[in-house]
């Protein structure tokens, strides 16, 4: 019985099928790269309802992170400051600036300012700010040099792989707790060597098992 398709047609069909597989594979690889947290979230800079400059407040004026985010050393979450915190200064400073009208309205009405969250983690991820801050992990390790940002942006992927990389080798990111909010602080020697000593002294054991972050 003669073949339905010629050998030439069969060869072309095989080549076409192979090309389709290669194209689909390449497309999947590109999409995986583009949608990876490192590419998808890093650089995220939402527009905020009030043009608050961390560079001005935390950098130029030296306002400590804990003044506004006052729960990071005692709670799992980092508090967004209440409008009253802003008005502690702005009741006298720039009290008539049109840029602060929403702040004044919020203070007068009690309606919170609808700040847009920058660093977002999935609901199935448990992250405890207190555990990190009191262990000597600086804000800069996860959030970058916020004191140099006019608009806060996400500088780290905050992916599981990224977190585990630190948990498996935390020493370079551990510093004396009194310098946790000093974003420009640098140790005199090797930061990893200092961090290793602090980890041993405090008995720090960053979890690498699933239940450490998924509860």
TrEMBL record:
PANTHER family for this protein: CYTOCHROME C7-LIKE DOMAIN-CONTAINING PROTEIN, LIPOPROTEIN CYTOCHROME C
Stated name of the protein: Cytochrome c3 family protein
Record's cofactor remark: Binds 4 heme c groups covalently per monomer.
Binding-site list for heme c 1: 57, 65, 68, 119
Residues that bind heme c 2: 69, 86
Pfam families: Cytochrome_C7
Regions crossing the membrane: 15-35
UniProt keyword annotations, A-Z: Heme, Iron, Membrane, Metal-binding, Transmembrane, Transmembrane helix
InterPro entries: Cyt_c7-like, Cyt_c_III, Multihaem_cyt_sf
Cofactor: heme c
Keyword Metal-binding annotated: yes
Organism name: Paludibaculum fermentans
Highest rank taxon of the organism: Bacteria
MF-aspect GO terms: electron transfer activity; heme binding; metal ion binding
Entry coiled-coil feature ranges: none
Chain positions recorded as heme c 3 binding sites: 54
Domain (Cytochrome c7-like) ranges: 125-215
């Amino acid at each position: 019985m003669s073949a339905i398709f010629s050998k030439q047609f069969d060869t072309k069909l095989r080549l076409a099928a192979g090309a389709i597989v290669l194209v689909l594979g390449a497309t999947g690889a590109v999409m995986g790269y583009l949608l990876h947290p490192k590419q998808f979230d890093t650089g995220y800079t939402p527009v905020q309802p009030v043009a608050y400059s961390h560079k001005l407040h935390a950098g130029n004026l030296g306002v400590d992170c804990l003044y506004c985010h006052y729960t990071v050393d005692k709670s799992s979450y980092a508090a967004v400051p209440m409008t009253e915190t802003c008005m502690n200064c702005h009741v006298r400073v720039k009290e008539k600036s049109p840029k602060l009208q929403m702040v004044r309205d919020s203070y007068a009405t009690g309606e919170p300012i609808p700040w847009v969250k920058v660093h977002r983690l999935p609901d199935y991820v448990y992250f405890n700010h207190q555990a990190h801050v009191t262990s000597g992990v600086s804000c800069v390790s996860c959030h970058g040099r916020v004191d140099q940002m006019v608009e806060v942006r996400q500088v780290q992927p905050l992916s599981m792989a990224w977190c585990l990389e630190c948990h498996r080798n935390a020493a370079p990111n551990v510093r004396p707790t009194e310098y946790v909010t000093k974003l420009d602080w640098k140790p005199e020697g090797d930061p990893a060597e200092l961090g290793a000593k602090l980890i041993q002294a405090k008995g720090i054991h960053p979890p690498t098992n699933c239940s450490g972050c998924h509860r």
